[in-house]
């Protein structure tokens, strides 16, 4: 008997401790996608950046993610002498994660280096980062999305734009004009309503019309990344709800009137701090027109919703790879799990779902890169569809992937519990599941060009598969339904669109066999509610070979 040192038994049939892995190079979808749709960016610099980040995310950043989630941020409201400081202390791993993300421009790449394919490249980097740590993805996405609003405001000092376009991460507590890099937060939700932001009670009073400066008084019930340099926020003016930028520090280098009440004790998303705040005569700059606050901030929210879809697709990919890896090394009853037919069914089903999620999220990146009116109409409705569907899939998907690993999937030394705790929040924040489905209806009613763009997209593969055609035919019928019933059935409609669209993207990316498998398992009348119910006709080997690693 060859016992290990300090062990009275031989350890066998346990997977090897995982080595750092380049998660870009080992993800066939990413490189194929670049070949297929990224001709504008598939140059050596791009591939080098993705390889570097894939290497980092598959080892160093994942370890940092473990530390940053284990050592949660802590609030210090007062210093030792009783002075109010409102400081949140983060583990050094949190700062290092953001340093690396900013260095690669994940928070600003399409704005700092605009050009063909910039959104797709940034999406891939963001996808890699989320597999290492999703908590830091929150300030990254808010900064990325916030810039799209800031950029339109000529009256703001230039340092706001310049600092947002920097690749420096500067966590020092100073006025934005003195910093080498800036991060943004977003504060909309109040106690009486997060979905119903029209019910916000925070009030804004005009200080100086010329400088568009206002004072805010009120509260926000959720405000993530509260050490950000500026917060896009909403408050009531005489003209109605308006959007503002509230700087963390004042031009005279004293703190602005943003008082942190406490940090939320959350289910997951532990590396990220989420706080409750009050505004006490908080200085703020108007963004957009008074009374048009929702329209102004929705520009930002559209992008954060898109990032939620990307982020959840990344969590699913990470979970699936862990499950796959375990099953290729673990035997039960003398046979590797990967060779057990029922486990193959589960893994192939997970693989289909994971890739369909990623393809749908990246399709939105291509909309942004294209920027044509039709593609932006598709993006408008597509963000709501993708955020609802992908983010809703992620928790159950990760649970299934964890179960493939048996008891190990439930143990904190593995990443699965962290992914599982993280998953629900993408579905919740930036507008919860129902809100996304109602937004699909709103887009259809108010912006009919969205319906045209969507139907053109879905019809482009019509005639290739009977299940697809029959499923597609149901969508216009649902749309013509009674408006009252449409709201009741908004999830049914959104799910139908999402799965149809995913099938179309699978057709575009994979061969006819995998497309047919996807259509039979997702679009036919016999589709299953749990994973692992693919039918006997399914091309299991082809899926596992094409999709996994
Ligand atoms: C970890 C975390 C961090 C957050 N960070 C931020 C932040 O930084 N900034 C910020 O502004 N907010 C933040 N939020 C708040 C988040 O965006 C809100 O919690 C969310 O929008 C839901 O609002 P609510 O909690 O008030 O729920 P409610 O608005 O009360 O909604 C409750 C439920 O009702 C559903 N619902 C609402 N309207 C309808 C309808 N008409 N028909 C059917 N169902 C409906 C919703 O989908 C939801 O499921 C954060 C939340 C979390 C959990």
Automatic annotation (TrEMBL):
This is Acyl-CoA dehydrogenase AidB. It holds the Pfam family Acyl-CoA_dh_1. The lineage of its organism: Bacteria, Pseudomonadati, Pseudomonadota, Gammaproteobacteria, Cellvibrionales. The keyword Lipid metabolism does not apply. Keywords: FAD, Flavoprotein, Oxidoreductase. Residues 185-282 form the Acyl-CoA oxidase/dehydrogenase middle domain. GO terms for molecular function: acyl-CoA dehydrogenase activity. InterPro entries: Acyl-CoA_dehydrogenase-like (IPR052904), Acyl-CoA_DH_CS (IPR006089), Acyl-CoA_Oxase/DH_mid-dom (IPR006091), AcylCo_DH-like_C (IPR036250), AcylCo_DH/oxidase_C (IPR009075), AcylCoA_DH/oxidase_NM_dom_sf (IPR009100), AidB_N (IPR041504). Residues 13-171 form the Adaptive response protein AidB N-terminal domain. Its cofactor is FAD. Its EC number is 1.3.99.-. Signal peptide: none annotated. Residues 291-444 form the Acyl-CoA dehydrogenase/oxidase C-terminal domain. Belongs to the acyl-CoA dehydrogenase family.
């Amino acid at each position: 008997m060859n016992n290990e040192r300090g062990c009275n038994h031989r350890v066998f049939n346990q997977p090897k401790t995982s080595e750092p892995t380049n998660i870009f190079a080992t993800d066939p979808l990413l490189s194929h996608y670049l070949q297929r749709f990224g001709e504008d960016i598939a140059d050596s610099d791009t591939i080098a950046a993705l390889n570097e980040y894939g290497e980092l995310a598959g080892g160093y950043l994942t370890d940092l993610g473990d530390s940053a989630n284990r050592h949660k941020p802590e609030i210090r409201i007062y210093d030792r002498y009783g002075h109010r400081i409102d400081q949140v202390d983060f583990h050094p791993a949190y700062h290092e994660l953001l340093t690396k993300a900013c260095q690669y421009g994940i928070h600003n790449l399409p704005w700092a280096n605009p050009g063909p394919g910039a959104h797709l490249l940034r999406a891939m980097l963001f996808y890699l980062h989320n597999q290492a740590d999703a908590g830091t993805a929150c300030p990254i996405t808010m900064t990325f999305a916030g810039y799209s609003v800031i950029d339109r405001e000529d009256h703001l000092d230039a340092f706001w734009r310049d600092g947002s376009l920097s690749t420096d991460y500067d966590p020092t507590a100073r006025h934005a004009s003195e910093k080498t890099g800036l991060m943004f937060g977003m504060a909309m939700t109040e106690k009486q309503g997060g979905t119903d932001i029209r019910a916000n009670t925070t009030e804004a009073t005009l200080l100086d019309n010329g400088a568009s400066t206002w004072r805010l008084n009120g509260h926000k019930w959720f405000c993530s990344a509260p050490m950000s340099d500026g917060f896009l926020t909403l408050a009531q003016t005489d003209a109605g709800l308006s959007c503002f930028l509230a700087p963390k520090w004042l031009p005279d280098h004293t703190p602005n009137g943003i008082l942190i009440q406490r940090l939320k004790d959350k289910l997951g998303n532990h590396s990220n701090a989420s706080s409750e705040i009050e505004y006490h005569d908080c200085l703020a700059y108007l963004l957009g027109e008074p009374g048009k606050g929702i329209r102004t901030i929705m520009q930002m929210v559209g992008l954060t919703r898109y990032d939620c879809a990307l982020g959840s697709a990344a969590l699913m990919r990470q979970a699936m790879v862990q499950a796959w890896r375990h099953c290729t090394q673990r035997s039960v009853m003398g046979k590797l799990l990967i060779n057990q037919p029922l486990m193959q069914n589960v893994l192939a089903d997970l693989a289909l779902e994971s890739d369909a999620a990623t393809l749908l999220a990246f399709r939105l990146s291509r909309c942004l890169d294209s920027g044509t009116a039709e593609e932006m109409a598709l993006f408008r409705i597509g963000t709501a569809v993708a955020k609802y569907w992908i983010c809703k899939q992620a928790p159950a998907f990760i649970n299934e992937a964890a179960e493939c690993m048996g008891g190990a999937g439930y143990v904190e030394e593995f990443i699965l519990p962290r992914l599982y705790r993280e998953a629900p929040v993408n579905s919740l924040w930036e507008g919860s599941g129902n809100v996304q489905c109602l937004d699909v209806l709103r887009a259809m009613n108010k912006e009919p060009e969205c319906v045209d763009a969507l139907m053109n997209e879905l019809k482009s593969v019509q005639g290739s598969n009977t299940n697809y055609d029959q499923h597609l035919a149901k969508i216009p019928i649902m749309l013509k339904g009674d408006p009252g019933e449409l709201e009741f059935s908004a999830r049914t409609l959104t799910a139908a669109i999402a799965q149809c669209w995913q099938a179309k993207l699978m057709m575009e990316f994979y061969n006819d066999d995998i497309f047919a498998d996807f259509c039979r398992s997702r679009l036919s009348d016999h589709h299953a509610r749990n994973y692992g119910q693919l039918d006997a006709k399914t091309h299991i080997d082809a899926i596992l070979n094409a999709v996994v690693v």
